[in-house]
């Protein structure tokens, strides 16, 4: 962020504070499972312009991953014990327009060693997002394997 030429005129300390505030907002919204309308209202109360609110809400649509990350913040991260998935096929959207979009509903069974509880983390993703996630998990597994061989 500090190397971005569009932000070179902004004090680095202010920029870091803004980044931390935005990250905190996203994580808290994910923890609270806030919907777009609640977030939009909150950002309007903070006097953000409509264009920025729309951009933020568009990015927040990917909050399923934010929820996974927010659950892992604490003294000890969550451990995935199992995963289940099912294919969902959306035929119409909320405006009753035909969409015919397949997506995957993924549920991660997790446990937290601090509390001993087993909350499930669920999210929806497209085939491309799921393939990207699987690729990143394979990369992580290879990195871990190389690290243990040293």
TrEMBL record:
<dbReference type="InterPro" id="IPR037355">
    <property type="entry name" value="COMMD3"/>
</dbReference>
<dbReference type="InterPro" id="IPR017920">
    <property type="entry name" value="COMM"/>
</dbReference>
<dbReference type="Pfam" id="PF07258">
    <property type="entry name" value="COMM_domain"/>
</dbReference>
<dbReference type="GO" id="GO:0006814">
    <property type="term" value="P:sodium ion transport"/>
</dbReference>
<feature type="domain" description="COMM">
    <location>
        <begin position="79"/>
        <end position="148"/>
    </location>
</feature>
<dbReference type="Pfam" id="PF21672">
    <property type="entry name" value="COMM_HN"/>
</dbReference>
<protein>
    <recommendedName>
        <fullName>COMM domain-containing protein 3</fullName>
    </recommendedName>
</protein>
<comment type="similarity">
    <text>Belongs to the COMM domain-containing protein 3 family.</text>
</comment>
């Amino acid at each position: 962020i500090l190397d971005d030429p569009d932000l070179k005129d902004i004090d680095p300390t202010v920029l870091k504070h803004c980044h931390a505030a935005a990250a905190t907002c996203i994580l808290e919204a994910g923890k609270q499972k806030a919907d777009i309308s609640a977030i939009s209202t909150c950002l309007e109360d903070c006097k953000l312009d409509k264009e920025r609110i729309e951009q933020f809400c568009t990015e927040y649509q990917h909050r399923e991953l934010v929820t996974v990350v927010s659950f892992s913040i604490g003294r000890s991260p969550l451990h995935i014990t199992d995963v289940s998935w099912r294919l969902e096929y959306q035929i119409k959207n909320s405006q009753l327009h035909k969409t015919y979009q397949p997506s995957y509903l993924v549920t991660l069974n997790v446990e937290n060693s601090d509390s001993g509880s087993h909350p499930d983390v669920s999210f929806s993703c497209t085939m491309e997002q799921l393939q990207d996630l699987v690729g990143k998990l394979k990369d992580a597994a290879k990195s871990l394997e190389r690290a243990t061989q040293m």
